[in-house]
Write a structure and sequence with these properties.
single chain, 435 residues, alpha/beta, Four Helix Bundle (Hemerythrin (Met), subunit A), Rossmann fold, 434 Repressor (Amino-terminal Domain), 3 domains, 20 helices, 8 strands, binds guanosine-5'-diphosphate, binds magnesium ion, hydrolase
Length: 435
Amino acid sequence: LSLKIDAALKKITGQGRLTEANISDTLREIRRILLDADVNYKVAKDFIDKVKEKALGKEVIASITPGQLITKIIYDELVELLGGGHSEIFLNPTGATIILVVGLQGSGKTTFSAKLAKRLKERKRKVLLVAADIYRPAAIEQLKILGQQVDVPVFSLEQKDARLVASESLKYVKEKGFDTLIIDTAGRLHVDEEMMKEVADIKEIVKPTETLFVVDSMTGQDAVNSAKAFNETVNFDGIVLSKLDGDARGGAAISIRSVVGKPIKFVSNGEKLENLDVFYPDRLASRILGKGDIVSLVEKAQETIDEFEAKKMEEKLRKNKFDFEDFLKQIKLIKKMGSLSSLIGMIPGLGSQIKNAQIDDKALVKVEAIINSMTKQERENPKVLNGSRRKRIARGSGTTIQDVNRLIKQFQEMQRMMSMMNKKGFFNSSNKNFK
Ligand code: GDP
Ligand code: MG
């Protein structure tokens, strides 16, 4: 038992600060992971430097290791770099929504166009797909087949002029009352001027409400170059990461983001037409780091046990000054945690003592209401809680006098238990009995 307590105390007192020495291993590992995931060398280096600058000197809080903390910092930076929140497509409320889909050949434009058509149709939009890839004979047929599968009509012309297809499709839309247009364009295997000119012309003709650049997640480094070229030509609004199923780590997204600075909007992750997700930076960050578990664990610990609060609480426990105000804070923490048992697990040594306390969520709500109805003085000094005060509190909190009495009794018991543990030196980390 004493060994266990010792370990627990070590956890709660923390392990000092992040230093070059205790983060260098993790940083080296992360750099390797980023490079493996196809992040551009320079981007990875800048990223690591930035993380290092942020991390050095940070205090390592209760119950996590320096390695975990630095992973968490890296993860947060990555989420930030990938765009913070997520942004959806712009649906024009006043006129037609015109989405132009661009990218290299084989990047997944046609597949994505059909997936997006399905998605928007499900949102009650009147969607038309436009086959502006007129070069490969099979391209129009491919879009037609996909269109059929998602029950969305496809506009095409048997002519070798993509610009004409684009302008004619606009007329057709007006005639037939579609409100959403998805234009699938041609791509080449490599960026070339003719293709860029055509895409730029189509953009000029249709004046899209949104231009989306589709990029194959597996192509890694090349993806950055094509993203740059397309961005310079058509100044796209968002990125679609395709083929993010299978092994692709999606690291190219980091490079693309940092080079062109446009938001990633969708993730296309499978050949089936329902395999389309809105982009969530945190998911991709986890995927790139391949450390979903650590990240969520660290996150949970850090979110809920604020380092400063934990220290203050420890100090109060030690000095036997834990009052209702602190009790309330603990309850808020518990609520944030989601479950009582997980919090108990984080209070070293306390777990077994109050495991059978049987506090359910409803009871917590009640307790919170009762404490909220106490004055500051009452919270800090529960001894003043006489009969008339208890009655007032019950009324104020919508509970009964029995509820209030019960809580006060539980609180007193807890205080007694804590003072007992204090006498045993439980909260004194330098106590030799527990080494
Ligand atoms: P486009 O040339 O840019 O129009 O690319 P396509 O949409 O024709 O896609 C090229 C190939 O990649 C096809 O064989 C697609 O089935 C496949 N593909 C497209 N998107 C995905 C995806 O998200 N996951 C997987 N596994 N394959 C995809
Ligand atoms: Mg295509």
